[in-house]
Design goal:
The complex is a heterodimer of chains A (180) and B (577).
Chain A (H helix, E strand, L loop, with lengths): L1 E9 L4 H11 L3 E9 L5 E9 L5 H10 L3 E6 L5 E12 L5 H10 L3 E5 L3 E8 L1 H12 L4 E5 L3 E4 L11 E2 L12
Antiparallel strand pairs in A: 1-3, 1-4, 2-3, 5-7, 5-8, 5-9, 6-7
Chain B lengths: L2 E4 H11 L4 E4 L6 H7 L5 E4 L3 H15 L3 E5 L3 H15 L4 E7 L15 H4 L6 E4 L3 H16 L5 E7 H5 L1 E4 L4 E2 L12 H13 L3 E5 L1 H5 L3 H11 L3 E3 L24 H9 L2 E5 L5 H4 L10 E6 L13 E4 L2 H15 L5 H20 L13 H12 L4 E4 L3 H9 L8 E2 L10 H11 L5 E6 H7 L2 H7 L5 E6 L4 H10 L15 H8 L2 E5 L2 H13 L4 E6 L33
Parallel strand pairs in B: 2-3, 2-4, 4-5, 5-7, 6-7, 10-11, 10-12, 12-13, 13-14, 15-16, 15-17, 17-18, 18-20, 19-20
Antiparallel strand pairs in B: 1-8
Helix pairs in contact in B: 1-2, 1-6, 3-4, 3-17, 8-13, 10-13, 11-14, 15-16, 15-22
The chains are: A alpha+beta (180), B alpha/beta (577).
């Protein structure tokens, strides 16, 4: 099944490699992955869609949480969350169907971002299923080229972020005690 | 007060602050500045003969002391040679810090001489790794590396340091705190779950402790013994955990799993409660998971949340340091002071009778011969001389399994082997690490004729360091374990397993300047081993054993652990995988 994971991680060199490496090392297929800085430029937010057996979902989250640079890994698959994707699409349109294409784009909430004698470039956002339909419909008007962003997700309920406090150095002395 | 010094010198200051007294390494081009600083530093450096063995030696050091082992290699081939040792430390949760040199920052990415993407290559070989790009990050990074390696579930951490960072001059400011906001270490265990565990234990008619390497890592032997005695549970101890409960303890039921004892595997299959302590339900222990401990409820204590429920879903999961959790559980059980009900008490007595009967019916087989040395006899003799007190490092294969079955260990940190990764060539370098750390101890390096030949270069390290290691080669002229599988599952078609042209060990040892001897008669065994132990320096004893012996019991791959093959020569079908 497709699992949607939201990761909050430190924006450090190699952090992305650790996440993708972990997924491939454990045999999970990445369906999509997006990453960008958060309001705090020291942190990044990553949304990952990954194909895993449903019995392995918790294991994926636990492994993610073990990465030193990961502050929080959340499974949004069944949690209250909004999942959206952006599509950029270029469609070659003959003169006679230009109006029809514009109307169809409007139905899907698409927005024309470039227009030329050849056709249009259109952007649209939505859930993956709706965007799939949009792409199909546009394809029926002429040759198309498509770029998809992959899923972006945000949880609808804030999850408490637990950060570990500083510890003194020296042979692992002074391990913070934390109870889960 | 900040002092002006080079990055290399700062690194050494950090190591000293972390209590490092010795390290294992091999210099090269980009680590020249580091070795130059080391020239006038008190930290002892042991020059190995191959970088892989620097990692293995650091692991032997760590396993025999509980301290963080340190190894060092240069960029490129030096770093890539370390990787097997890093994965080994990862699999067996051994705390080591590896320092590697990297080409000068400006050259990174240019395919420079001896450049390799160490940071990328070792991502999956380490618990965490670093590439230090700026001198001002070096001190912080080294302390973080030690902290990560030694806390939580221990493991290897690598720090890659470019040459210009070693050479750069800066003001050294000791770092007293580190901040890793995303590094979660859970130690205490959940109070409610600990209470639930106590309740399950009190009600259980057929309890069984399944203890492993986590007990050793957590230094929780005393707590384990107290728990076992308090609950009077039989205890199976895994390959990685041997010694965590003395082999002489009346509740000790030997090793479970593929080559585990009949009693241990039957006890796991028939018990109604498993108290799993610092173990990971490894496939070599569980066999076919669906058939593993089918009647048992499971209490699983581990410091790594990802191990809990990975292979077997527990009824009571407890994430925590097994030492703390067991301590709290023991206190709670003692406070509650519940005596088992009459029914439960009677069932427990019957359970103990059953476990003792299994032990009696099928102890580990120790065949004897008038003319040949049986490998099991060799283990018995080492066991006799050790009396549970010597450090035994082993390589990988048949000798490792026989040793685990037959050599007793009175305390933890005596049995050192490559468990999870099964890296041949581990036996000798890990003995070098262990003997360096514990010069007072009798150290046997027990190896096969295959693994020994992977580690021959380290004879030179051993001699140059004056380490009186007793190397015992169990020589059956074959890669014995591979041959055993070919015999059992590949219709006796022995392919690429014969090791001919083994060197004359007397001459080999003499070439390095110490004593060696080959024996092949049963009556030579005890005197030869005694001679080796009496010898003040190292000794190389080549013991030619019966060539075609197989390790039993054996659980065929894909079978349940109660489906043991107890001995030859019943034909075994290849199980469907």
């Amino acid at each position: 099944m497709l699992q949607v994971i939201s990761l909050l991680l430190e924006n450090k060199p190699g952090a992305l490699m650790r996440v993708t490496g972990l997924l491939s090392q454990r045999g999970y297929n990445i369906e999509s992955l997006t990453v960008a800085r958060t309001l705090d430029p020291a942190l990044s937010r990553m949304t990952i869609s990954v194909e895993v057996d449903s019995s392995q979902r918790q294991q994926v989250i636990k492994q993610m949480n073990k990465l030193i640079n990961v502050l929080q890994a959340t499974d949004l698959t069944d949690a209250p969350a909004v999942v959206r994707e952006l599509v950029l699409l270029r469609v070659k349109t003959p003169q006679e169907s230009r109006t029809a294409v514009l109307k169809e784009a409007e139905i899907f909430g698409g927005r024309v971002v470039d227009s030329s004698t050849d056709g249009f470039a259109i952007e649209a956002t939505g859930d993956a299923e709706k965007l799939g339909e949009f792409i199909d419909v546009m394809g029926s008007y002429g040759e198309i080229e498509v770029t998809r962003s992959g899923a972006l997700a945000i949880a609808l309920e804030a999850k408490k972020l637990r950060l570990q406090p500083p510890v003194p150095t020296g042979n692992g002395a002074g391990v913070e005690e934390k109870v889960i | 007060m900040a002092t002006l010094m080079s990055g290399a010198r700062m690194l050494l200051e950090c190591l000293a602050r972390e209590g490092v007294d010795c390290m294992f390494g091999y210099p090269g081009g980009v680590t020249l500045p580091f070795y130059d600083a080391l020239y006038e530093h008190h930290i002892r450096h042991i020059l190995v003969r191959h970088e892989e063995n620097a990692a293995f030696a650091a692991e032997g050091y760590a396993r025999s002391t509980g301290k963080v082992g340190v190894c060092c290699a240069t960029s490129g081939p030096g770093a890539t040679n370390l990787t097997t040792g890093l994965v080994n430390a990862m699999m067996d949760s051994i705390p080591i810090v590896a320092i590697t040199g990297q080409v000068t920052s400006k050259l990174i990415g240019s395919d420079a001489f001896q450049e390799a993407d160490t940071f990328g290559i070792t991502r999956s070989c380490t618990k965490h790794n670093y590439l230090v790009k700026r001198l001002e990050d070096l001190v912080q990074t080294i302390h973080e590396a030690f902290y990560i390696a030694s806390t939580g579930r221990p493991g290897p951490v690598l720090v890659d340091v470019p040459k210009d960072v070693f050479q750069g001059q800066g003001h050294y400011q000791p770092v007293t705190t580190i901040h890793l906001p995303g590094y979660k270490v859970f130690t205490e265990g959940h109070t409610g779950q600990i209470r639930r565990a106590a309740q399950l234990i009190e009600k259980s008619s057929r309890p069984l402790v399944y203890a492993g390497g986590g007990i050793v890592s957590a230094n929780a032997s005393a707590e384990l013994r107290e728990f076992v005695e308090l609950t009077d549970s039989p205890a199976v101890v895994t390959l990685m955990g041997l010694g965590s409960l003395s082999s002489e303890h009346p509740n000790f039921i030997s090793m479970p799993g593929m080559h585990g004892s009949y009693a241990a595997n039957m006890a796991l299959t028939e018990c109604d409660l498993i108290v799993a302590l610092g173990v990971r339900f490894d496939d070599r222990v569980t066999g076919r998971l669906a058939a593993f401990a089918p009647h048992a409820k499971v209490i699983h204590v581990d410091i790594d949340p990802a191990e809990i429920g990975k292979n077997r879903a527990p009824d009571v999961p407890i994430v925590g340091d097994v030492k703390r959790v067991l301590g709290r559980l023991n206190t709670l059980l003692a406070e509650r002071g519940r005596k088992p009900t009459e029914d439960v008490a009677a069932e427990r007595q019957a359970w103990w009778r059953q476990v003792r009967a299994w032990k009696r019916e099928h102890p580990f087989d120790v065949p004897t011969s008038e003319t040949e040395i049986k490998p099991q006899q060799l283990m018995r003799e080492i066991d006799r001389l050790s009396g549970g007190q010597a450090i035994v490092t082993s390589d990988v294969g048949q000798h490792q399994m026989w040793a685990a079955q037959l050599i007793r260990f009175a305390e933890p940190r005596l049995w050192i082997n490559s468990g999870g990764l099964g890296s041949m060539g581990f036996g000798l370098p890990s003995a070098i690490g262990a003997q360096t750390a514990r010069p007072d101890k009798l150290v046997f390096s027990l190896v096969g004729d295959g693994g020994f030949q992977m580690a021959i270069p380290e004879l030179s390290t051993m001699v140059s360091q004056g380490l009186p290691i007793k190397i015992v080669i169990m020589n059956n002229g074959h890669l014995g374990m591979v041959r055993q599988w070919q015999t059992l599952f590949f219709n006796h078609r022995l392919s690429a397993v014969e090791l001919d042209s083994f060197p004359d060990v007397e001459k080999l040892a003499a070439a390095y300047g110490f004593k060696g001897r080959t024996i092949d008669k049963p009556w030579e065994l005890a005197p030869a081993l005694e001679e080796a132990v009496r010898e003040p320096g190292p000794y190389l004893l080549n013991v030619k054993v019966t060539p075609f012996e197989s390790v039993y019991p054996m659980v065929p791959a894909g079978a349940g652990i109660s489906e043991m093959v107890l001995g030859p020569p019943q034909p075994v079908e290849v199980p469907a995988q």
